[in-house]
Structures are given as C-alpha cells and as structure tokens.
Amino acid sequence: MIEFLTVIFQIAVLYLLADLTGGLFHWAEDTLGSADSPIWGRIFVQPNEIHHERPGDMIKIHWLKNNIPILSFTAFVLLVALAFDAVTWQLLVFAVFAGANQQVHRFAHAPRARLPGFIKWAQRKGIMQDARHHWVHHTDPHTSHYCVLTPWLNPVLDRVGFWRGMERLCVPIFGAPRRPDLKDRSWYRE
Ligand SMILES: [Zn+2]
Ligand SMILES: [Zn+2]
Fold it and tell me: 55 alpha carbon to ligand 1 midpoint, in Å?
C-alpha cells in the first residue's frame, strides 16, 4: 500500500513539475529577447507574439501543427536520455505530462461546447487548467499565470513573486526588449 501511495505521490509531483517547466518556458518566450533573436526569436518568440495578439487563432490551425514544437523537443530529450541509458518510468511520465502542455493550453482556448466530455470533467475537477484561469494571462499586464497545465501553481508562484525573481536573475544577462514595464529597474537590459 505504501509503495502504491509513493507512486501516486511521485506522479502528482511530476505533473506539477511538468506544469512548472512549461511555465518557465512560456515566461522565457514572453520575456527574453525578441522576434529578431537568432533561432530563439523565429522558433519561439514570433509564434508566441502572434498568440498574444490573436489568441483565438490558435484553434484555427491543426492541432498537430500546434503541438509539433513541444512534442519534437520532448522526443529529443527522451532520445538523449536513451543514448545515456537514463530512461526511467519517472522520466517517461514527466515527458508525457510536459508534452501535454500545449494541448491543454489549446483546450483552454477552444469553445467549451466543442471539448470532449472527459476534458470538461478534468477542467471542472482542476486536473487541467480551464479557459477562465488561463484568460488571466491574456489580460493586462500579461505578467502572471504563465503555467498552462494546472490551476494549482499559478496562484502560488504569482503570490511569492517567482516571475519577478526570474526577471531580476535573467534580464540582466539575456535582455528583455519587449518588456517596457521593467525599464525603470536598475538591472534592466534591452
Ligand atoms: Zn504568454
Ligand atoms: Zn493562451
């Protein structure tokens, strides 16, 4: 019994860890560099800027096109782990959860009437983030609710100032030309 509970606990932690990883990536996409930055700008910043300007467009494109970048990245990490003989069940579970970030985000932008019953159920039970929770991120000043998988981490991370800490740490190194709200900080860098 104890062993079973330990596995359930680990799965719950991995789910939250996947949410945090997605949130960190999303925060970096929203904050660091610009659409002109080499590689990073074209692959991540540009689509993200379009999503912020026209959030509804996301569900107009095919779900696979929407998911390919994150699924390719997840597959790449798994292949590296395989090459180093470092694949564990925990890594596989984490990869499935992390890889689901974009699809869960997409569900939060889809009209509720078009969602499958079990997704609506998962959103109602707080297993997946719903549209109302995610919409806070799409509301001015767009600097909170970076996690898209669950509704559990955002309130905590926002309250403790986690993202403001990340900005203090990373902006002086990488620059954040798209964040004029940070311009008055002594450590701000274009
Ligand atoms: Zn965003
Ligand atoms: Zn969104």
Answer: 10
Structure tokens at 7: 């596995």
pLDDT digits (tens, 9 = 90+) for 120-179: 999 999 999 999 999 999 999 999 999 999 999 999 999 999 999 999 999 999 999 999
Cα 173 to ligand 1 centre (Å):
21
Instruction: Return the structure tokens found at 60.
Output: 């107009």
CA of 87 to the centre of ligand 1 (A): 31
97-125 residues labelled b (16+ CB within 10 A) or e (exposed): bbbbbbbbbbbbbeeeeebeeebeebbee
Spacing, Cα 75 to ligand 1 middle (Å): 23
pLDDT band for position 2 (cuts 50, 70, 90): confident
The alpha carbon of 134 and the centre of ligand 1 are apart by a number of angstroms equal to 10
User: Relative to the alpha carbon of 48, which ligand is closest?
Assistant: 1
Nearest ligand by distance to the CA of 23: 1
Distance CA 178, CA 32 (A): 8
List the structure tokens of 4.
């079973």
Ligand nearest to the CA of 66: 2
Nearest CA to 66 among 116, 110, 4?
A: 110
Question: Is 0.90 surpassed by the pTM of this model?
Answer: yes
The amino acid at 66: N
